[in-house]
Design a protein that fits this description.
heterodimer; A: 218 residues; mainly alpha; MetI-like fold; 8 helices; flat; B: mainly alpha; 0% strand; AA_ABC_transptr_permease_3TM (chain A); transmembrane (chain A); MetI-like (chain A); Ectoine/hydroxyectoine ABC transporter permease subunit EhuD (chain A)
Amino acid sequence: MMFQLDYAAELLPILLKASLITIEATLGGMAVALVLGLVLALLRRSRHAVIHTPASALVEFVRSTPLLIQIFFIYYVLPLYGVRIPTLACGIIALGLHYATYTAEVYRAGIEAVPHGQWEAGRALSLPIYRIWRHIILPQALPPVVPALGNYLIAMFKETPLLAVIGVHELLGTALREASQTYRYYEPLTLVGLIFLAFSLVTALVLRRVEVRLAGRS
Amino acid sequence: METLLTTVIALAPRLVDGAMTTVAITLLTAPFAALFALIAGLARLSHVRTIAVAAVVYVELFRGTSLLVQLFFMFYVLPLIGIELSPWTTGVATLALNFGAYGSEIVRGALLAVPRGQIEAALALHMPPNRVLRRVLLPQALPAMLPPFGNQLIELVKATSLLSLITISDLTFVGNALAQTTGRVTTVYILLLAVYFGIAYTLTLAMRALERRYGVARTMAAAR
């Protein structure tokens, strides 16, 4: 079977349009992961066992179970209890929740790397705990972990095809839909692979730039 | 009236079958992935340019695209160009190649972390390069690889769930089928998550035991 260039050319605009959904899912998922991950990281640092134990348990559990099942869970189980969410939003929540458990670890590493004296200085000035976090700890903890967070952005981007299983027409879902109409899988799947490769290489280059810039600033 | 317990008991045999398949896929894939990681990790450090470039291409190709896309490509496209593989072979090969690509970075990092003086000393003693690798480099690099490889093993368990999408009746496949046929969606998916967690946790404990036996801390103590 030969790779048909004209069929590929016909598919390319459709797939590029679908990649917008992929990007939307990635950015949405990353936004959830960045916020929820920070919340989880802060909860895990709580002095109270009632707070840090469930947070740690949640992180461990979500990290150790497949994203695919979590997607099914949010898509099939939540509506049974009256929680109706649009399909793409289900995917974004699943991606965000899953990756929040990874970003939580990244944040934790960043927070633990802030020298202890910074805490003591903040307390010595009797700053309220909120201001210590907001103005002293986080501004020092976050910039060094940006590259690690960026890697999870790329990782999440590559997991968005899983959303095809619940009918999100992102890249892979669209390619499979097209393929099922023409019975040609070669061109759609190859193009999806190439588009992913192109995106990954570009983001990797951009991230390296950001890394260099951040390193230069400190 | 059917209680939760009777439902769980009724579902158990098929879930256990599925779980066995998931564990089998994981244990079958892991050694191949480790082998590919070792080969690609070493190849990237090769002085022969063609070998190093080939390794970079392999690693970037598999790290740059999505695992699910790779699986579907192997499953749907390879037969079209005359390569007929069973779903099992397709699944295990794709997982192993994908995780091998990620693992090669771990191997490379661990090898580069061995102090250069060690290699120089071995070469000064006229050790042939392959013995330097076997007797000097790998014994020092392997303990450092254990913790990241442990993490990769958990990622592998999770990734095996994707094979359900290429018709392999692993835990996810069985679970989806049970959710549809029994209508006990909530129970089935919670059980699925619990079983996956159980498998992952058991492997985490096993890897920790391995680290205690062969990990960096232990080897450092023995060297003292």
